[in-house]
Design goal:
The structure is a homodimer. By secondary structure, chain A is α+β, with helices and mostly antiparallel strands. Chain A is built from 12 helices and 10 strands. Helix content of chain A is about 45%, strand content about 15%. Chain A starts with a helix and ends in a 5-residue tail after the last helix. The interface between A and B is large, with 39 and 39 residues. Chain A binds a DNA duplex through helix 2 and helix 3.
Chain lengths: ~350, ~350
DNA sequence: TGTTAGCACTCACTAATCACGAGTGCTAAA
DNA sequence: TTTAGCACTCGTGATTAGTGAGTGCTAACA
């Protein structure tokens, strides 16, 4: 598909205009723009051709033109000039990383919030997978005779905790011994391998030292059953209400259902990891509820081969250029910020 | 205000009808009901009187009647027969408490979900204030040379953790000693008094044993700065979209803003604690965005003088009777379930 | 005296009609 | 190749008319 320069210009202006106004753009209004020195008739002819190529559409016979999905795709692939962010935007972003926040979850959550606030779209951030994190320390804190809290701290500072029932017949000394064994055996073990190692290596060892070791193993193995899905952090879930394309409450509901369930979104965002910026436009999402939205995902690597990803969900009529710049900047900052957590400068 | 039996009957039926259909109810359709043996003309006369008393309203001159806020208030105060829950409902509720869940947050979150799912309204649950919880154990887990995780476990099994920067010049032995001191001095201290005690009692003691104790105190005091607001747990935030009164996206947005910010809702729900079921209808909420919704709150005591509360937010046209029954049942169950956590049967 | 039948009246809602205007496609002239 | 001109399309908004569910009032009835 070869377009003349004039066609490129016209296509670009139409899409830019539509992104701003959400209104079909007509030949006459275009011809009035100062960077368009052609008459409306000429533009009409070009529009006709662009429509034949499938880049534009009409909402009805005599309406102005609207970009088609293919049009957006072309725009994104060929027309997008990586527009630099405004100073104001940059400084706002820096503010997330300015005060030294000390928890990963915090940084991630705040990134999501800023991202949605700056774009007015919905943002989704997935922190680095912590299944690969290694156990730093295991603690058991008895609460009373029947129950105790098990705590696992990873090398990234992530804390998992779970209450469990103390198997009968276990005395405080047993627990103390158990903690010692667990720390000896499990320190340095990645979370994913925890259950496995528990049953294979630790079990044997506990057998020798602890009465009722099987009950204890059982109780503990459950604790280590860490949820498979990492948590998605959302920002501006409600922002879609501000988009005219979702004035229809039923459409909004359908969209919200997909967002809230996370089932569909999670793999999409997860699989981005490591492959730069990805853009899914409208029906490319393969989901009825997402047919009028675009999903832009970016991933950010952190030290140690891990990576997280962030995404923006907005109407297909989205400020692609701005969103991409934002994602680029923020993903780099996140890389830097989170890498400090993953930097394993053990003693 | 004295109503005849017939007026009571008619008011009741009108409100019940409107709650179901969300449509103004007219005299003719009422007269057709089998438990209403009066002609439409008679009903019209009664309606006229009820309207004069301010219990009913018309949406326009020749429309059917709709309950006024005063009408709902009367209905709630005098007409509501505490209708027993259906078996199906009861068994669904039991299912929350059936599998022995071991974390407070879990129970609370699931209650909120079930509540919203069963009512199709939005539910809000506030767990018992844990500011009064007592420290059970303090742990410090060094991650590397610069940072460490501080963990505080309370007697209810609540775990707070925070990363902090290790003041320079502090060696592992210092930390170990510090943990011992903190546990000695702070065990049994309610969370609210933590900071105070830290500065007053613990500081003196640390001074004697730890180098750079002032930096350490500073770092640690920050950690103990536990958020003032307990977390609200929501269920079915989106359910309001299903209510015809919120077909208007602007109204929906206003409502969602109030819900999401939590500022307004928190004190309302918090202050319920200990005073049974409270019902706020429409403008009684004193908030423009909440003028078309009712908020029903209930509190549930747990052992040790604590209490939590749960709330349902729905349109003023709400199934009051059902919601109240549900809240009653669930608050009792929550009382029971959470009391086991607060039961301080220490060794 | 309370209840009901009858009737005129109101008003939201829907569908139909119309004028307007922003847009198109086509043709012919520049 | 570009543009001016023109007939045509169609969404939008205003207006109108018909419909029906509802009311209030009056007069008759039990």
């Amino acid at each position: 598909m070869m377009l003349t320069d004039r066609q490129l210009l016209i296509l670009q202006v139409i899409i830019d205009d539509f992104i701003r106004s959400a209104q079909p753009v007509g030949s006459r209004s275009l011809s009035k723009k100062e960077n368009i020195p052609f008459s409306s008739a000429t533009i009409r002819n070009e529009m006709y051709d662009l429509e034949e190529m499938g880049l534009l559409e009409k909402t009805h016979t005599s309406s102005g033109r609207v970009p088609s999905e293919k049009g957006y795709r072309f725009y994104v692939d060929h027309l997008l000039s990586p527009q630099a962010l405004k100073k104001k935007d940059m400084s706002q972003i820096q503010s997330i990383f300015a005060d030294r926040i000390l928890e990963i979850e915090n940084v991630v959550q705040r990134s999501a919030e800023i991202l949605s606030q700056m774009t007015n779209y919905t943002s989704i951030v997935l922190g680095p997978d912590h299944h690969e994190n290694k156990v730093k320390s295991v603690q058991i804190i008895p609460l009373n005779l029947e129950s105790a809290i098990a705590i696992i701290v990873t090398d990234t500072g992530h804390v998992e905790n779970k209450r469990f029932t103390i198997p009968p017949g276990l005395n405080p000394e047993d627990i103390e011994r158990m903690v010692k064994i667990l720390n000896d055996k499990l320190t340095g073990t990645p979370l994913v391998e925890l259950q496995d190692k528990m049953y294979k290596e630790v079990a044997l060892f506990l057998k020798r030292h602890i009465a009722n070791y099987d009950l204890m193993i059982e109780a503990f193995a459950q604790i280590m059953n860490i949820p498979v899905h990492d948590k998605l952090f959302f920002g501006g879930k409600m922002n879609m209400m501000n988009q005219p394309e979702f004035n229809d409450i039923d459409k909004l509901r359908m969209l919200m259902d997909v967002i809230d369930s996370e089932d569909y979104l999670y793999p999409l965002i997860k699989e981005t990891s490591g492959s730069g910026i990805q853009i899914r436009i409208g029906k490319e999402n393969n989901n009825e509820a997402l047919k009028d939205v675009s999903l832009i995902t970016a991933s950010f690597p952190v030290i140690g081969g891990q990576s997280g990803s962030l995404a923006i969900l907005g109407p297909t009529r989205m400020e692609y250029s701005r969103v991409i710049s934002l994602l680029n900047v923020i993903s780099m900052d996140l890389s830097k910020a989170l890498s400090t957590f993953y930097d394993r400068d053990d003693k």
